[in-house]
Structure prediction request, 242 residues.
Amino acid sequence: MRIALISDIHSNLAALEAVLADAEGHGVEAVWNLGDTVGYGPDPNGVVARLREVGAVSVLGNHDAAATGLMGTEWFNTLAATAADWTRAHLETEAATYLAGRAEVVVKGEWSLAHGTLREPLWEYLTTEEAAEGHFERLETAYSAVGHTHVPLLVRRGARGVEGETPGEGSEAVLGEGPLCVNPGSVGQPRDGDPRASYALVDSGEGTVTHHRVAYDIGETQRRMRAAGLPQALAERLAVGR
Ligand code: ZN
Prediction:
């Protein structure tokens, strides 16, 4: 089975549509979404509707929790808090109910899915060896996938401890070589200097995971953000992928 791992869509419907079209071209049958479905971008309702349409599995992200009132915005920076308040005011009941009903950790077969880490699903960034160790200590399946950093990453735990690498576009990793954590990067607000939408494709039959980048109409999302009155800085960063 081919599965698209997506994360941090952040209400960017143009980016999500481009990724879903690309994934469909690769014969994807399932979509697993690692949270921060909303926040920052202009289309929270459209994004949730599209995810439901494709039957995506989604976990809860910190921005989803803030936008649905499950947590406050006091830990957010000003721009994120402004966007969270905007999202909360514009979320339709159906979309809010969907988001608020997501679990922090979901297990699908051999995979555990969370937004941050398995130790701190909503908040922890898997960017240090210590965080990776804490994550793998809680891993009860063979593989895992997280988001939250908006930067693609591949981490393995072997005899010599944890080892991370930054997977480039098209790079392929092999499953079955011990515990693994995949971060597919961000669909709707990449932060690794490449503004194209990022996702990963798991092929459970072939036993591989590959990283993909997809160009989308950034100008369209920026126009919609300006029309919505969202902070200009959030629109501008999309063009540079930071
Ligand atoms: Zn995020």
Observations:
- The chain is about 35% helix and 20% strand.
